[in-house]
Amino acid sequence: MVDMLTLQKAFLETYEGTRSFKDFVKINAGSPENRFSVYKGNIESTFRKALEGKYPLTWKLIGQKCADGAAYVFIRAQKSYPQEGSLLNWGRDFPEFLETFEATRTLSYLSDFAKLEYFMGESLCAEEKTPLIAGDLKNIPHHHYERLIFIAHPSLFLCASSYPLDQILEVVEERASSVALENRGAYALIIRQEGRVSIHWLSETEFTFFSYVSNKIPLGEILEKMKERKFDFQEILSFSLKNGVFSDYMFLGE
Amino acid sequence: MNKCVGVGLRLPHYQYVLDNTPSIGWFEVHSENFFMKGGPSLHLLDRICEKYPLSLHGVGLSLGSAERIDQDHLKQLKTLIERFSPFLVSEHLSWSRVGGQYLPDLLPIPYTDEVLEIFSNHIDETQNFLGREILIENPSSYLEYNMSTMTEPEFLSALCQKTGAKLLLDINNIYVSSVNHGWDPSFYLKSISPSLISEIHLAGHSQKTFEDGSSLLIDTHSSHVCEKVWALYAEALQLGMGAPTLIEWDTDIPDFEVLMGEARLAQGYLKEKKVVYG
Predict the structure, then answer these.
(1) Is the pTM of this model over 0.90?
(2) Do A28 and B99 touch (CB under 8 A)?
(3) Could you tell me the fold of the domain covering A129-254?
(4) Which residues lie across from B54 on neighbouring strands?
(5) What are the domain boundaries of chain A?
(6) Low-confidence residues of chain A, pLDDT below 70?
(7) ipTM for the complex?
(8) CA angle A203, A199, A95 (to 5 degrees)
(9) d(Cα B252, Cα A72) in Å, to the nearest integer?
């Protein structure tokens, strides 16, 4: 008798189209192929729904039919199945796939837009931590600032693009009926505040600062790296504390 | 409404339920939809739990896999149980994981001694880890294995006997599988001891017709409970299979009032059979 592991491997291979499951199936009314196809259809449909759930704005941007088509090509081409029994963390590779999908290849900004949306979803479900407020920093002696490392809030995500994603988002969210896309990039800071995801559009300099923070670079080193740029640290610190960007701090060497 | 009828709670209805506090006995959610680390979904469920009993229904633990259960999945489930204190925790008689890779569907298992051993061990491990009893739901299936040596109710009964787990009897699944495989649904019901049933599911299904003219019923949870499933539910109640009953609707989800209508129908059957639960 065939053991369970052999049967389950055969199921996966049949799903991938490299073998037949016929030998395992009891023959009664209805062909084994039709019966197996129900499971294959269910699996693909569940994957598709998971992608639509994760990328609803991308679906809206390119339309249901086109997005569904992209999803099915992605599902059938990809060999990286979820490694866990939940689809909450699956589908991260979809934006990269959109760069290669023939029907949307001319929409050069689409992949970056989908990445932005992915980060929005991640931010919404991120771990909860109380953000730092100004009072949390008041007792730090000035001579320790050099070694100060800010810990970014778990819901903080950064997304840079060479396309004006802010303009595209305005249209998709129907805050503008149409826009003339400007020839510029966009820098987004995504964070969850009071249960909602906010996107703050930054300058390149501000974005660079937060990229350093995300990489846990000490404040002294950040300021040294950014000394050639037009940069108001007090202003960016005030913005950070107001928007809950930091969840903690530590000192270099701790 | 009597506390025995509940509804499967899905995202489009969260706000309606919080705003209107409908008269329903309890809610059930899919455990894996709440495996995130934080955010508003968990807070919404906190608020639902302040007002209603909750049941956690899993779809991804893959108790029927030949390989070991995913320990992270178990830990996440336990975290959820500790946070929401559900009155029921259930999973499926199925598998979905092979070689560490997850296929998101409730895939069928053969009913053999080897699989009974695998499944029993995984239920034991789960119940020990969670420190509580779980329920196992009979699946809708679209194929049978030629290697099976037991019927589905025989397998389920043996599983409960070996592990102490109870059954979540999905009446629609019995009907769908019976039509798909030529089983007698009444015989299926009579083959299971009423004392094993701790929850009942009711849902709608659809029919898929293939190019060769053959067809299968599909457990789509996309419509009203059909007359034949209601009749089978009445038969189960007549056999003494009284248990908290849930209305499920997962595709083309209608207004909450439609689900309430189905719940009232189920309540009517329970009242007629004088089934009462606390």
Answers:
(1) yes
(2) no
(3) Outer Surface Protein A; domain 3 (3.90.930)
(4) B27
(5) 1-107, 129-254
(6) 1, 79
(7) 0.95
(8) 95
(9) 20
